[in-house]
């Protein structure tokens, strides 16, 4: 009975988080990175003050973990063309120079720490491989884009 | 005096015997429990991590290939094909490893499958042999001609593996409650029998 109540809290917390916060994100890639940033690297636990105050620390943590897994699954099923588009939208949202962004992502591979715990190794490798290709495509597209000529 | 020496000798002998018994490897029952859990885990890896249709379609499907081809860049196409080939080989390798682990368990702990009919037992043995052969063949084809060499063989291998998993899962279904709680348990809950 207690377990059922707890699960009910987690579902309610996840639902609220989806409606209030995640609905403002642009896509699964954006969501994945945002949710990974809410996870403590040392403990693997997720923190969200507002959600924890409304429900409980435990329920908030589990709800965020559920949303994280959901975002990962959604991103995994995105076709490559969509992934390139999502990556470009994310890049624009960071307001970083495209060349710097691509170089940093290719060098540091920050997406490697954005994977939810307990994900199958092949799924993880598949996503990393797709992101690597998407970055190369984005680089190719940026290189072909005409350089804006400043007005004299 | 001789009696005392005899008593001491018998006492020492018993102590040595006790020491040897204590150093024995785990009993067959403990080993079997460990092997059962390992087999159940192999099944979970197969069902949740390697055999979901959407993952196989994403790795071996041509939708992404068509998109990359439309970009008309040789270097991008090469990168894409290299990455997909690596993933396809990783899929075949992992599938074969898990199947071999299940086969090993099945042959060593056959008494666990006492409820299996002769016909099912024969079909399972044939499936094990078939999948191993298919995996080898697929590995060679992917290595030689790339990930899109034989979609039919991929489908056939996945179908045989899924069927085999269902049969073995039914036999090991009684273990499911002890393994519940993992993040991926929900997806397999519908296929297991309690």
Question: What features would you describe in this structure?
Answer:
- The complex is a heterodimer of chains A (152) and B (194).
- Chain A is mainly α.
- Chain A has one domain.
- Chain A has helices at 2-20, 28-36, 49-54, 57-76, 80-94, 98-108, 121-144.
- Chain B has one domain.
- Chain B has helices at residues 2-22, 28-50, 53-60, 63-70, 74-108, 118-145, 151-171, 176-179, 185-189.
- The interface between A and B is medium-sized, with 23 and 28 residues.
Question: How would you summarize what this structure contains?
Answer:
The complex is a heterodimer of chains A (152) and B (194). Chain A has seven helices and no strands.
Beta-strand percentage range of chain B: under 5%
| Whole-number mean pLDDT of chain B | 80
Largest beta-sheet details of chain B: none
Note the overall shape of chain A. Answer: elongated
The CA-CA distance between the termini of chain A, in Å, is 74 Å
Order of helices and strands of chain B: HHHHHHHHH
Q: How much helix is in the residues of chain B?
A: over 70%
The amount of helix of chain A comes to 55-70%
Largest sheet of chain A: none
Tally of individual domains of chain B: 1
Number of strands of chain A: 0
């Amino acid at each position: 009975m207690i377990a059922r109540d707890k699960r009910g809290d987690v579902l309610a917390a996840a639902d609220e988080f989806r409606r209030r916060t995640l609905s403002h994100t642009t896509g699964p890639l954006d969501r994945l990175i945002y949710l990974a940033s809410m996870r403590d690297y040392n403990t693997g636990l997720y923190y969200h003050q507002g959600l924890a105050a409304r429900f409980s620390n435990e329920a908030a943590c589990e709800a965020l973990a559920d949303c994280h897994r959901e975002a990962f699954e959604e991103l995994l099923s995105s076709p490559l063309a969509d992934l390139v588009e999502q990556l470009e939208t994310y890049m624009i949202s960071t307001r970083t120079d495209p060349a710097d962004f691509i170089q940093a992502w290719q060098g540091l591979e920050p997406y490697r720490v954005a994977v939810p715990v307990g994900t199958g190794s092949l799924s993880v490798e598949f996503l990393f491989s797709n992101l690597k290709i998407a970055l190369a495509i984005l680089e190719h597209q940026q290189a072909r884009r005409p350089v804006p000529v400043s007005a004299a | 005096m001789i009696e005392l020496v005899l008593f001491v000798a018998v006492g020492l002998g018993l102590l040595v015997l006790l020491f040897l018994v204590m150093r024995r490897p785990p009993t067959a029952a403990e080993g079997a429990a460990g092997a059962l859990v390992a087999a159940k885990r192999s099944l979970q890896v197969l069902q949740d991590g390697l055999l979901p249709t959407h993952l196989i379609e994403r790795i071996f499907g041509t939708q992404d290939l068509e998109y990359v081809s439309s970009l008309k860049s040789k270097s991008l196409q090469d990168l894409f094909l290299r990455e997909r080939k690596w993933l396809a080989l990783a899929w075949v390798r992992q599938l074969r490893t898990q199947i071999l682990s299940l086969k090993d368990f099945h042959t060593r702990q056959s008494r666990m499958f006492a409820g299996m009919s002769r016909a099912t037992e024969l079909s399972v043995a044939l499936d094990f042999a078939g999948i191993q052969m298919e995996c080898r063949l697929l590995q060679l084809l992917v290595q030689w001609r790339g990930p899109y060499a034989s979609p039919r063989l991929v489908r056939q291998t996945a179908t045989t593996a899924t069927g085999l998993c269902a049969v073995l899962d039914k036999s090991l279904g009684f273990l499911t409650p002890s393994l519940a709680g993992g993040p991926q348990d929900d997806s397999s809950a519908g296929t297991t029998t309690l």
